[in-house]
Amino acid sequence: MAEEKIVIGAESKYPLDGILSIPNGINGLIPAVVMVHGSGPSNMDEKIGNNYPFKDIAEGLSEKGIAVLRYDKRTFVYGKEMRNDTGISVKEETIEDAILAASFLRNDSRIDANKIFIVGHSLGGMLAPRIDVEGGKFAGIVIMGGSPRKLEEIIMDQNDEVLNSLNRFLKMIARKQIAALSSKFENIYNLSDEVAKSTKVLRKYARAYYFKEMDEHPSTQYLKALDKPVFILQGDQDFQVSVDKDFDGYKRLLGDKPNVTFKLYPNLNHLFMPSVYGEILKAKKEYAVAQRVDQQVIDDISNWIHSV
To answer: Is 160 tagged catalytic?
Structure first.
């Protein structure tokens, strides 16, 4: 494959460096993928600890005749400038750039404009159906380690999981902190947009408006209306989302739709790499172990894209 340095949104306020991986020796138009990151600032490889899942997927899919576009996330490059913007939502953080990436591919004469797909990981997977409807216009959607639930529900579940791992003394302190956070989340829907923009709920910069705006555009409403192909994947040792609440939640929501394919992978974590510790409390140690995305995952995504 060839890796070409590109810029997404070159004429915009937030140009982003990226890489377009192009397969070698392909005759005719090439199918392509836009990679969309999970939560938090992230580079084009979606580096987490000592792992580079987007790099692995790009290289793997390119070997199988699929072009892959990956780019730095806006908050990774411009996080400091964006911190004081109280109206930041997933639209500015993620959606706008993913749509620009899709347009970039459509303007490349080597790419089959009718075979551009989105592969969203984690939060990127949750947002993928909305990105499609708001301008991505993809041929199909791949959701890796996503969720049909609200973001705050997932955060609260993760906190409860940590709580259950603590000793008695730390549990008392953490329980009060988690209760206070839960109260903030519950009050989000009672706030006007303006008040939500000035209300901090999580860490120093995460404001109520971010969650409120996302919740007003639930992924479930987009997914239920979609008739284009959707592929939903999850590892059964993923401690950041749940098999029962998330993977099976998708199945309960979409299981009777012929356009949706599901696959659960044994012993893989949230990065679709072999599970090491399998506990959210040891997430940092888990992701410090350098691994690669499981080859079966790459094979399955490739086969699914070529079958659409």
So the answer is: no
What's CA 280's distance to the chain center, in Å?
18
Residue 122 catalytic? yes
Show pLDDT as tens, one digit a residue, over the chain (308 residues): 899 999 999 999 999 999 999 998 888 999 999 999 999 999 999 999 999 999 999 999 999 999 999 999 999 999 988 888 889 999 999 999 999 999 999 999 999 999 999 999 999 999 999 999 999 999 999 999 999 999 988 988 887 776 666 666 667 676 777 777 787 888 888 899 999 998 888 766 688 999 999 999 999 999 999 999 999 999 999 999 999 999 999 999 998 999 999 999 999 999 999 999 998 889 999 999 999 999 999 999 999 999 99
pTM for this entry? 0.93
Q: How many CB atoms are located within 10 Å of the residue 176 CB? A: 9
For residue 42, report the phi and psi dihedrals to the nearest 5 degrees.
Answer: -155, 145
Rg of the chain over all Cα atoms, to the nearest angstrom: 19
User: Could you tell me the end-to-end alpha-carbon distance of the chain, in angstroms, rounded to an integer?
Assistant: 22
The active-site residue, picked from 89, 242, 246, 270, is 270
Is 108 a catalytic site residue? no
**Active-site residue, selected from the candidate residues 108, 238, 246, 294:** 238
Cβ 301 vs Cβ 272: under 8 Å = no
Q: Per the residue annotation, which of 62, 122, 147, 219 is the catalytic one?
A: 122
**Residue 177 CB neighbour total at 10 angstroms:** 11
- Cβ atoms 120, 131 nearer than 8 A: yes
Report the alpha-carbon distance of residue 210 to residue 167 in Å, rounded.
Answer: 33
